[in-house]
Each structure stands twice: as structure tokens, then as C-alpha cells.
């Protein structure tokens, strides 16, 4: 077992201590191996470029790393418990494929910057994938809003009927929220778009390495300059990524809550297709919105994972600490959970059925109280007096508003949802994601090209 560890010095290690320090890495690191392989190939190219690795060794390493990358993507790469983590397993597999050259790959780097690079590459991929799914869901909400742009429904505040709204206005709200999240995604991307490799254990290496070359090879726009800050950023970038995921989920949770509420028999504004409900083991009539409730629960679970990341990363001095190992599982779990929620909602939004007649019946005259006050104010009555006059009419049962007198035609109002502007912004977000993904794919292919 001792020689399977990268740091082994031939000294004994207590088996219980080994199990405790290894933790979940043999399972968690499987997601990192493809990215570790790509980063290692770029590292090998850099070592050859600066004369620290024979060209023949570099070519053998890149070819072997491509094979291991593909195995990891296919799910056939394994990490044995005695190998401790994915980095050890990858190096052992390299040695098995190319012999002595595999032992040269670790020159001028530490596991600290190796794992940082793999995590950074993984988070870049995950963020782009989540962005693409958010685009699809935004489009689904915009389509829903367009289809129901004039379908009335009550607007609520304090869970009480408040003012006239439409299903189009309701659906557009969640599209707009996602558009804002897609905008903030660019800021998250800028934080991740810097290459940590070359920082080693946090103090650089006394060798003529070329950090900018590696950054360019892997499609980073810059080098993360300070080696100490590379280590300090463990947790900082994970927190930023998971916090973005939580923000996205926070908006979606409100939609899920609304659907659960509005599809009850008491409201009856919405209905879910049978294929999106489950039954009861005892009550034959039940059609339960389990998918809605579980997705809503996932949104709250995300906040718990974010708190876990924050707690593990906080309260530490600068530089590297083994505590950081515990950041991987909740980070990957959070990003994976959001991906599943986005995928499910993209299927659910288009099939939610609007019961327009029921919602129209609930849109009674009282919803137009504020509108009627505005009508009176437009006739010259001070608004506070108009407010009181309408309140008196409501109290004595004489309130009869003119429902057609006023419409909110300002941008975003029920009469002007701004759907075309939203679609234009969505197209820009989609274009950025597509171009960024394409550019990274080109960089990866250059790394792998013999």
C-alpha cells in the first residue's frame, strides 16, 4: 500500500488513519480524472517546451493521458482505495502505460496545484453546462408567457388577492430571473478563468516553467499570479459557484411553490399531466405532485450544501490545509443537483396546463380597486382621496370598477411584457455560451493533438 501513495517514503502508516484521510476521494475523484488528464497533458507539453522533459516522453504521456481521459469519460477508469485519490491513480496508470516517463509527469507541480487545476477545469465545464440548461429553461418560460400573455389570473401579495395579473406575466417573471442569473454567470466565469498550475504547494517552483503557456493551452485568459492566493482561493471559487447555483434555485423554488399551490383543488388554476404525478399507496384518487415537491426540496438542499462549503472553507489561515479535501463532495453535489432541477423543469414547464376559466372566475372586481383609484385620480381627484372613496365603495358593496379603463402598458406590465427584449438577451447569452464552449473544445483538441 505504501508505494501506491504519491508521498510515500517507505514509512509505515496506520490503516485507520489511512482510511480516515482518504475519505470519499476514491469515489469523488472519478469526476475529476478527465480534467486531471487534460491538465496533465498540458503540463507535459509545457515541461517539454522549456526543456525539462524529453520530447519523446511528452508525446508518449499525452497519448496515454488521452486514453485515460477517454476511459474516465466512459466510466471505466477506477481508483483503488489504497491509491488514495484520483491523482495517484492517474499517475499509476501512466506508469503502467508508458513506464519511466510516467514518473516524470509530476516534475514542477504539487498535488495542491494539480487538484486546483482539475477542479477549475471541472467547474468551467459544469458552469457552461448549467448555463446552457438555464438557457433552455428560460426559453421554456418565455414560450409559456407568450402562449398565455392575455390569460388572466389573480396577482397575490401576502397570499391574498391583490391586483390583476396574467399567466404570461407570471411566466415572464421566472424567465427574467434566469436572464439575470445568466448575466451574473459571466462574472462567475471571470473568477474561474485563471490558471492555477505552476503555483505548486503555494510558493512556486525554482524551475524555468512557463505558466502562461499552460494557461493559453487550456483556454484560460490569464494566470492566477500569486501562488499563495491559488491556495487561498480553495473554497473561494467553490463558494462562488455554489452560491450562483443557490441563487438560480432560489428563483425556481418560488415557481415550484406556486405550481404546488395553484394546482391544488382549492385553487385549480393549474394542472399537471398524469405522467408528471404519482399515486398514493392507500388513496386511489390521489395524483401527487411529487416531482414538484422534490425539485422544491432540492432547491433548499442546495442552500445546505452551500453552507457546508462555506463552513469548511472558513476559519483557516492562508496557504494549503487538508480541510480543503472536504470541499469537493458538496461542490460537485450542488452543481449536479442544480443540473437535475434545470433538466426536470425544462420538461415540466411546457406541459403545465392552465385552467383559464377557473383563474378568470377568481379574478373578481376587488382586484381592480387600485385601478379604479387611478381612474379617479386621472379625473383630478387627489390619489389619497380616490383611495378612500374606493375603500368606502368596497365596504358598502357599491364597488363596480371599469375593468377596461386602464392597462399597465409600461415595460414589464401586463400589457407590455417585453418578451422580444428578453428573447434578444437570451440569444446573446446562448451565443456567448456556445462560443466559449467551442473555444475550449478547440483548446482541448490542441492539447491532445500529437
Automatic annotation (TrEMBL):
It comes from Hyalangium rubrum. This is Argininosuccinate lyase. Keywords: Amino-acid biosynthesis, Arginine biosynthesis, Cytoplasm, Lyase. Pathway: Amino-acid biosynthesis; L-arginine biosynthesis; L-arginine from L-ornithine and carbamoyl phosphate: step 3/3. The gene is argH. Its EC number is 4.3.2.1. Its main location: cytoplasm. It holds the Pfam family Lyase_1. The keyword tRNA-binding does not apply. It is found in: Cytoplasm. It comes from the Bacteria. Residues 37-304 form the Fumarate lyase N-terminal domain. The keyword Cytoplasm applies.
Amino acid at each position: 500500500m505504501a508505494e501506491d501513495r504519491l508521498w510515500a517514503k517507505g514509512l509505515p502508516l496506520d490503516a485507520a488513519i489511512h482510511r480516515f484521510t482518504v475519505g470519499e476521494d476514491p469515489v469523488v475523484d472519478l469526476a475529476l480524472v478527465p480534467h486531471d488528464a487534460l491538465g496533465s497533458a498540458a503540463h507535459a507539453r509545457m515541461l517539454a517546451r522549456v526543456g525539462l522533459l524529453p520530447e519523446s516522453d511528452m508525446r508518449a504521456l499525452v497519448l496515454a493521458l488521452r486514453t485515460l481521459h477517454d476511459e474516465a469519460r466512459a466510466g471505466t477508469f477506477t481508483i483503488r482505495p489504497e491509491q488514495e485519490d484520483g491523482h495517484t491513480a492517474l499517475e499509476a496508470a501512466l506508469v503502467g502505460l508508458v513506464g519511466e516517463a510516467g514518473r516524470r509527469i509530476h516534475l514542477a507541480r504539487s498535488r495542491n496545484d494539480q487538484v486546483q487545476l482539475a477542479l477549475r477545469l471541472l467547474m468551467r465545464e459544469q458552469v457552461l453546462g448549467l448555463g446552457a440548461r438555464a438557457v433552455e429553461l428560460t426559453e421554456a418560460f418565455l414560450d409559456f408567457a407568450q402562449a398565455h400573455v392575455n390569460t388572466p389570473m389573480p396577482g397575490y401579495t401576502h397570499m391574498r388577492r391583490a391586483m390583476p395579473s396574467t399567466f404570461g406575466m407570471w411566466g415572464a417573471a421566472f424567465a427574467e430571473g434566469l436572464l439575470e442569473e445568466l448575466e451574473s454567470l459571466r462574472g462567475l466565469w471571470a473568477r474561474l478563468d485563471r490558471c492555477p498550475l505552476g503555483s505548486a504547494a503555494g510558493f512556486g517552483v525554482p524551475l524555468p516553467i512557463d505558466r502562461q503557456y499552460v494557461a493559453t493551452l487550456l483556454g484560460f485568459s490569464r494566470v492566477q499570479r500569486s501562488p499563495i492566493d491559488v491556495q487561498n482561493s480553495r473554497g473561494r471559487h467553490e463558494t462562488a459557484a455554489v452560491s450562483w447555483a443557490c441563487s438560480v434555485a432560489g428563483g425556481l423554488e418560488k415557481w415550484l411553490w406556486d405550481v404546488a399551490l395553484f394546482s391544488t383543488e382549492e385553487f385549480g388554476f393549474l394542472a399537471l399531466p398524469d405522467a408528471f404525478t404519482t399515486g398514493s399507496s392507500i388513496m386511489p384518487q390521489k395524483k401527487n405532485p411529487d416531482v414538484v415537491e422534490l425539485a422544491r426540496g432540492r432547491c433548499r438542499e442546495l442552500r445546505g450544501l452551500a453552507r457546508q462549503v462555506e463552513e469548511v472553507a472558513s476559519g483557516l489561515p492562508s496557504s494549503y490545509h487538508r480541510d480543503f479535501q472536504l470541499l469537493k463532495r458538496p461542490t460537485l453535489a450542488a452543481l449536479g443537483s442544480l443540473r437535475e432541477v434545470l433538466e426536470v423543469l425544462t420538461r415540466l414547464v411546457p406541459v403545465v396546463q392552465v385552467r383559464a376559466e377557473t383563474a378568470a372566475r377568481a379574478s373578481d372586481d376587488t382586484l381592480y380597486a387600485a385601478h379604479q383609484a387611478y381612474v379617479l385620480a386621472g379625473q383630478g381627484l387627489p390619489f389619497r382621496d380616490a383611495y378612500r372613496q374606493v375603500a368606502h365603495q368596497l365596504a358598502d358593496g357599491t364597488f363596480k370598477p371599469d375593468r377596461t379603463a386602464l392597462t399597465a402598458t409600461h415595460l414589464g406590465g401586463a400589457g407590455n411584457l417585453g418578451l422580444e427584449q428578453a428573447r434578444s438577451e437570451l440569444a446573446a447569452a446562448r451565443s456567448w455560451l456556445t462560443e466559449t464552449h467551442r473555444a475550449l473544445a478547440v483548446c482541448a483538441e490542441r492539447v491532445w493533438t500529437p
